[in-house]
Amino acid sequence: MTSRSSYDLGKGVILAQEQHDLSVAQLAQRLGTSRMQIYRYREARDLKFSKVCLLADTFGMSLENFLELCRR
Q: Residue 46: which domain range?
């Protein structure tokens, strides 16, 4: 049985970046990662829970608010 998520985490990353006026380079610096990794996050349909929590925290959002951005 295949489970389909009703969340698009990459979409949430893009929307949160736009809301907080953060470039890919700025987000990468805040997360201590590469710009290429940020592009991977932006394309991701799913991510590890720890990454989702880290992203929400980096954007200064609650987990619930970040996930609301990710709803399809």
A: 9-67
Instruction: Note the pLDDT tens digit of each residue in 23-52.
Output: 999 999 999 999 999 999 999 988 999 999
DSSP-derived letter for residue 7 is: B
Task: Report the CATH number that the domain containing residue 34 is assigned in CATH.
Answer: 1.10.260.40
- Indicate whether 72 belongs to any domain: no
- Annotate 38-67 with b (16+ C-beta within 10 A) or e (fewer): beebbebeebeeebbebbbebbebeeeebb
